[in-house]
Design brief:
The chain is α/β, with parallel strands linked by helices and 225 residues long. Helices cover 36% and strands 10% of the residues. Strand 1, helix 1 and strand 2 form a beta-alpha-beta unit. The protein is globular, with a radius of gyration of 17 Å. It starts with a strand and ends in a 14-residue tail after the last helix. Keywords: ATP-binding, Ligase, Metal-binding, Nucleotide-binding, Queuosine biosynthesis, Zinc.
């Protein structure tokens, strides 16, 4: 049994599918952090159902109370291409917070495996997507929990860590999942389309293009580079 973080995005979907393919019973955890793109939570529910999750918890945790990100505050989402450095769509300590919640559920449920869909190649430069972060959190889990102290360590799985977005799309195809039910856009249009201009849309579109696999996503504007 594994607790799998399911945001509704493409990466988290393929991470969850990897857990399922590896034989784990899936407990899906999504966080309603009052994100701008709350539509992703509907996608998370679709993903959890499609993978036969035994339980799907959508946990409310309003990070807009802190702000500090274009996803949780009144800050424009950049639309001028993928930029170097850490962009304003970074949510302070988001993956640390999410993994801590997943760890709490895992210990309570008797699970010792956690899955997260972070990626350190084709991504937006977030510090909490790097291998160093995953390794450090795994060490923290061992000393911060009753299970870890009693010799039952936790394993943090990041199966997409070293994949390009094209590799992730190919893996989704290999696993036979419907990638069209996932959601990536940070700034959805009023009509419910992917904007096609934010970093996440551009990375998603480029992944399908480079993989040579048809993109099932409905974009308001065709993503560029």
């Amino acid at each position: 049994m594994a607790v799998v973080l399911v945001s509704g995005g493409l990466d988290s979907m393929i991470s969850a599918a990897s857990a399922k393919a590896a034989g784990y019973r899936v407990l899906a955890l999504s966080v309603d952090y009052n994100q701008r793109h709350k539509v992703e939570l509907a996608a998370a529910a679709r993903v959890a159902e499609s993978l036969g999750a035994e339980r799907h918890i959508v946990l409310p945790l309003d990070l807009s109370a802190f702000g500090g990100s274009a996803l949780t505050a009144d800050i424009d989402v950049p639309k001028d291409g993928v930029q170097p450095g850490i962009p304003v769509t970074y949510v302070p300590a988001r993956n640390t917070i999410f993994l801590s919640l997943a760890l709490g559920w895992a210990e309570a449920a008797g699970a010792r495996d956690l899955f997260i869909g972070v990626n350190a190649l084709d991504y937006s430069g977030y510090p909490d997507c790097r291998p160093e972060f995953i390794a450090a959190f795994e060490g923290l889990a061992e000393i911060a929990t009753k299970a870890g102290v009693e010799g039952q360590p936790f394993k943090i799985h990041a199966p997409l860590q070293h994949m390009t977005k094209a590799d992730i799309v190919r893996e989704g195809t290999r696993l036979g999942v419907d990638m069209g039910i996932s959601w990536s856009c940070y700034d959805p249009t009023p009509e419910g389309l992917h904007c096609g201009e934010c970093d996440s849309c551009r990375l998603r579109s480029r992944g399908f293009e480079e993989a040579g696999i048809p993109d099932p996503t409905a974009y308001a504007v065709k993503p560029q580079g």
